[in-house]
Amino acid sequence: MTAIVQFENVGLRYGLDSETLSDVSFSLASGGFYFLTGASGAGKTSLLKLLYLAQRPSRGVIRLFGEDVVTLPRKRLPGFRRRIGVVFQDFRLVPHLSVYDNIALPLRVAGMVEAEIDAPVSEMLSWVGLGDRGQARPATLSGGEQQRVAIARAVIGRPEILVADEPTGNVDSDMARRLMTLFEALNRLGTTIVVATHDLPLIAQVSAAQMMKLDKGRLSDPTGSLRYPPARPQVKG
Amino acid sequence: MPWIIAIMMFLTVLSAAAGLGLGAAVKAMGADLAGRATVQIVEANPERRDRLSARVAQALRGEAIVRAVHPVAAAALADQIRPWLGQDAVDGDLPIPALIDIELTPGQTDAKVGRVRHMLHILSPQVRIEAHAAFLAPLAGLLSTLGWLAAGIVLLMTLATGAVVVLAARAAHDSHRGTIDVLHLMGATDVQIARLFQRRIGLDVLFGGALGFATALLVLILLGTRLMATGSELLGAINLPLTSWALLAALPVGCVILATVAARWTVLRSLGRLL
Q1: Cα–Cα distance, B32 to B27 (Å, whole number)
Q2: Fewer CB within 10 A of the end CB, N or C, for chain A?
Q3: Substitution target from A109, A161, A163 for chain B, most B beta carbons within 10 A
Q4: Which domain CATH number covers B69?
Q5: In the listed set B108, B136, B164, which residue is the last one of a domain according to the structure?
Q6: Distance from CA of A7 to the nearest CA of B (A)
Q7: Is residue A114 part of a domain?
Q8: Same structural domain for residues B109 and B227?
Q9: Does residue A118 form part of some domain?
Q10: Among A163, A169, A122, which residue's Cα sits nearest to residue A146?
Q11: Are residues B130 and B242 in the same domain?
Q12: Domain for residue A173, yes or no?
C-alpha cells in the first residue's frame, strides 16, 4: 500500500508555550482506517488540524498525497483541501444556509454546476436520514441531526481522506453505530478514514481499524485490550 | 450600509450637480459677457440727452466692430429704477442717464471697448462706456470658486464612500469569520470567498446608490423648476446640459464599481493573512 499521509518528526507549538505535539512520526496507508485516541489535551485536535491543513507545523515534514505540504505555496493549498473531508467536533455548519445548501457547499466550492448538484445532495440527504429536512436551518436541528449534516457535507465530495473529530460525541449509541457503518462503507470505496475519539466501544466496532494513541503530544503504544499496531510500520515502501 | 450609501450618494449627486451647474453658469456668463457693454449718455437735459443718444446710436451702428446696438427704452429703465428709488425719483427731476446696450464682434473685447470709448469721447465727453465683464467678473469668479469647492466635496464624498465600504467589508469579514474558515478548509480559494463578499456589498451599494440618486434627481428637478420660475437670467444660467446629466448618472455606476473593488481588495487582504 502507498502512504497517503506521512508525518516525520513533526512538532507543533502555539506561541511561546511548550510543544503541543512533539516528534510525531507516522504514515497512513491509502485506504486505511485509523482511530486516533488519547486523553483530553493530548493533542488529537492539533494533529488533525495539521492533517487537514488548518495549521502549519513548527517543525518537521508532512507529506500528503506524496507532496510536502509544509513548504507548499499558499495558493496550492485549496487544491489539497478539496481532497480532504472534515467532520468538525463543533459541526461548523453555516447558520444562514439551509441543510441542503450546507451539504452542497463542497460541491459548489469545487465548481460543480448547479444542475449537477441536486442529485448527489438529495441522495446524501436521504442517506443520512434527513430527506425531509433539506430546507431547515441548522439552528432548528438537534445535535445528532447537525452531526449527520456535518458528516454528509464532509463526504459528499468523495474525499480521498476523511478526518472526523469526535463524530459520535453528540449522538446516541445507535446513531453512532450507523455512522461508523457509513464510514466503513466509505472506507471500502477507498477513502482513508481518520477518526479522533474517546469512544472505546466504537473503536471495537471497526475490526479492520488501526489505532494511534497520543499521550501529552507524543505518539505512544497503548496498553489494554485495544487492538494496536504501531502506526509507523503499517506502510510498506 | 445601503442607507449610508444612499445618503452619501444623495449628497454627492447634489454637490456634483452644483459644481456642474455653476460651471455651466460661469461658462454661459462668460459667453454672454464677452463682447457686451453699455453706453451711458450722462446729460441732465432730456432733449439734449435724446439728441445725443440718437447721434451715439448712429455712430455705433457705423462701427464695424459693433455687431448690435440696442437703445434701452426710457420706460424700461424707469421700471428697473422704480423698485430702488421710488416713483417720485422716476417722475421727478432726477437725471437718469440714457443707456444703449451694444454687442461687439467676438475677440479682443478689451481693445475693442477701448476703441469705442475713444470714438465716443470724441463725440462727447458726456458719453461713457462700461464693459459688462468688468462689473460681473467678481461674481463669475465667486461662482467658479464655488464650482471647484463642489468638485472638492465630490472627491471627499467619493473617498468617504470608499472608506465606508472598506469598513463594512472588514466588519462583514470579521462577523463571518467562522463561515470563512469553513469555506477555506473546504478548499475555497481567496478569490471565491472574496467574490461572495464583493457581490453582497455590490448589491447593497447598488440599492443604496440607486435610492440616493433617485432622491437627488427629484430634488434637482424641483430646484430647477424653482430657478426657472424666478425669471432671473443669472439664476436661469445655472442649468445642466445633457453631458452633465450623463456625468451625474455615471456617479452611482462608478460608486458600485468602487465599492466592488474596495470590498474585494479588503477581503483578499484579510484572507491573505490566513493559512
Answers
A1: 9
A2: C
A3: A109
A4: 3.30.70.3040
A5: B136
A6: 19
A7: yes
A8: no
A9: yes
A10: A169
A11: no
A12: no
Q: What is the ipTM of this complex?
A: 0.85
Is A75 at the interface with chain B, CB within 8 A? yes
For residue B275, list chain A residues with Cβ-Cβ distance below 8 A: 53-56, 74, 77
Interface contact B182-A56, CB threshold 8 A: no
- Asked if B186 lies within 8 A of A53 by C-beta distance, the reply is no
Shortest distance, CA B189 to any CA of chain A (angstroms): 6
Residue A114 structural domain: 95-158
Question: What residues of A are in contact with residue B184 (Cβ under 8 Å)?
Answer: 78, 81
Q: Residue B170 sits in which domain range? A: 2-30+138-271
Residue B185 with chain A: CB contacts under 8 Å: 52-54, 81, 86
Q: Which of A54, A74, A83 sits opposite B185 (nearest CB)?
A: A54
Q: Kind and range of the H or E element at B128?
A: strand B127-131
DSSP secondary structure letter of residue A40: T
Task: Find, in chain B, the residue whose alpha carbon is nearest to that of A57.
Answer: B275
**CA pair distance A39, B243, nearest whole angstrom:** 74
Residues B100, B151 within the same domain: no
Query: Is B148 found in the same domain as B23?
Result: yes
Q: Tell me if A103 sits within 8 A of A94, measured CB to CB.
A: no
CB < 8 Å to B179, chain A:
94
Q: Which residue of chain B comes nearest to A157, CA vs CA? A: B186
* Residues 98-117, chain A, touching B (beta carbon < 8 A): 105-106, 109-110
Q: Is the CB of residue B75 less than 8 Å away from at least one CB of chain A?
A: no
In order along its 275 residues, chain B shows pLDDT tens digits of 889 999 999 999 999 988 888 887 777 767 666 788 899 998 888 888 888 889 999 999 988 888 889 888 877 777 777 777 777 666 666 677 888 998 888 878 888 888 998 988 888 888 888 888 776 778 778 888 888 888 899 899 888 888 888 888 888 888 888 888 899 999 999 999 888 888 888 899 999 999 999 999 999 989 888 877 776 666 666 678 888 889 999 999 998 998 888 888 888 888 888 77
d(CA A95, CA A23): 38
Q: What's the number of domains chain B is made of?
A: 2
Q: How far is CA B90 from CA B45, B49, B94, B144, B172, in A?
A: 15, 16, 7, 37, 72
* Domain assignment of residue A218, yes or no: no
Hey, of A14, A77, A93, A102, which one would you mutate to test binding to chain B, going by the most B CBs within 10 A of its CB?
A: A77
Residue linked to cell 421710488: B86
Does residue B78 share a domain with residue B62? yes
Distance from C-alpha of B165 to C-alpha of B168, rounded to nearest angstrom: 5
Q: Are B25 and B237 in contact (CB under 8 A)?
A: yes
